[in-house]
Amino acid sequence: MYEKFFGLRENPFRINPDPRYAFMTSGAREALAGMTYGIQARRGIIVLTGEVGTGKTTLLNMLMQWLRKQRAATAFVFNTQLNVNDLLDYMMADFGIPCESQSKGQMLMRLNRWLLDRHYAGEPVVLVVDEAQNLSPQLLEEIRLLTNMETSTEKLLQIILSGQLELEIKLRHPLLRQLRQRVTLHCRTSRLSMEETRGYIAQRLLVAGANGKELFSSEAIERVHMHACGIPRLINVLCDHALIIAFADNRAPVLPHVVDEVAREFGVSGGEPEASDAMREENSLETDALLQDLVKSWNRDRQPSPVNVEPKVKTV
Question: What structural domains and CATH numbers belong to the chain?
Answer without folding.
Answer: 24-188 (3.40.50.300), 192-266 (1.10.8)
